[in-house]
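User: Sequence recovery, please. Input:
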């Protein structure tokens, strides 16, 4: 990565961060020079006592700058419990250790085979189980997909993602998908595919075709999963991720929030992702897009600041990953998105649609980037997130 001259502040070494973190007083602490008594004069007496989770997170040695897969649920819960300014500051510090905070990677996602999926994912417009108005279509022709990829590259995307609504691809369909991957690679773009569950042999074929990333989300916590999907197990998803990793393809894996899950379930999702043997190179965090006809159509929208917290904790626990501000941006204010970028999001989907759901138009994203001083991440800089 090439720093933006004159704009990027010095990055802290891990020891510097630990030293700085050790000076942060816990909630309710009265620093030297202030009147010391049993009651902090700057803390209203009706406030609740300091949250022990917050206290632990603010006073523990900071290991945040190092990628690790031994996170405990208690540690992750402590991060979520931090005061919002402290959490965002810590996430921003981790982000700057590995990435230019003013650069955002841009991808375009195309539905290459829409609708008719036999799965019953409770949020999905493409499930054949629900009446959503989405009609099933056949797999697109290779040249049609490549035309879309050329347009995406011209619009500024560096990664082209292809999604097929299957439980898992048939071998004859995989041949066509491999041809798409080869064609997109020839355009000088990164490639990503999401097509359901894979066998080890299928993952190896995609790798041979030149696939860079395979997306397969965990969706939610292991405990809440049964309330969202019943047609495949959590272990099925983990098995596909293992096949992808073993084939040498980078993993794109995240989840969806705002589906009625509890705060503990959000902790559980981050824990499941951050304790994988190797962190996903790309972590999409999706805000539920409510789709009429699906079981999640009436879910209560998530508080925007809670969504920012999700981004921040993902950044801290998976410091080297691309954290993608994914579905749901169409409903987000510029201010919410700005906070997400500040908290460590450094990837978006660019283009009017995410499979079948709306996404901000290119002009809106360009205006937002201009207001925030953000630029698109050069393709070479995304290599940090790919396996060697």
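Assistant: Recovered sequence (388 residues):
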């Amino acid at each position: 990565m090439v720093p933006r001259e004159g704009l990027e502040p010095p990055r802290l070494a891990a020891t510097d961060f630990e030293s700085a973190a050790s000076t942060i007083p816990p909630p309710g602490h009265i620093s030297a020079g202030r009147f010391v008594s049993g009651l902090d004069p700057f803390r209203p007496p009706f406030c609740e006592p300091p949250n022990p989770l917050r206290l632990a997170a603010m006073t523990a040695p900071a290991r945040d700058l190092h990628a690790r897969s031994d996170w405990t649920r208690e540690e992750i819960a402590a991060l979520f419990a931090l005061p919002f300014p402290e959490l965002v500051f810590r996430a921003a510090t981790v982000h700057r250790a590995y990435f230019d905070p003013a650069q955002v990677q841009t991808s375009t996602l195309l539905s290459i085979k829409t609708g008719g999926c036999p799965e019953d994912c409770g949020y999905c417009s493409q499930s054949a189980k629900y009446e959503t108005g989405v009609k099933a279509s056949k797999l697109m022709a290779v040249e049609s997909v490549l035309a879309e990829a050329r347009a995406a590259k011209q619009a500024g995307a560096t990664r082209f993602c292809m999604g097929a609504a299957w439980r898992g691809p048939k071998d004859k369909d995989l041949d066509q998908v491999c041809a798409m991957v080869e064609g997109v690679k020839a355009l000088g773009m990164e490639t990503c595919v999401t097509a359901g569950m894979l066998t080890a042999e299928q993952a190896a074929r995609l790798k041979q075709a030149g696939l860079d990333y395979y997306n397969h989300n965990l969706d939610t916590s292991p405990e809440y999963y049964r309330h969202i999907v019943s047609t495949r197990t959590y272990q099925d998803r983990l098995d596909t991720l293992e096949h992808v990793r073993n084939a040498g393809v980078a993993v794109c894996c995240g989840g969806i929030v705002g589906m009625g899950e509890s705060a503990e379930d959000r902790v559980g999702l981050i824990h499941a992702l951050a304790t994988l043997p190797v962190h996903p190179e790309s972590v999409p965090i999706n805000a539920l897009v409510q789709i009429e006809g699906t079981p999640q159509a009436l879910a209560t929208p998530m508080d925007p600041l809670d969504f920012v917290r999700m981004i921040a904790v993902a950044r801290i626990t998976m410091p080297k990953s691309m954290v993608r501000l994914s579905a749901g941006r169409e409903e987000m204010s510029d201010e919410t998105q700005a906070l997400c970028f500040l908290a460590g999001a450094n990837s978006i989907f660019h283009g009017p649609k995410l499979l079948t759901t709306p996404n901000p138009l290119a002009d809106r994203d360009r205006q937002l980037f201009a207001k925030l001083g953000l630029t698109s991440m050069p393709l070479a800089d995304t290599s940090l997130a790919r396996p060697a």
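The chain has twelve helices and twelve strands.
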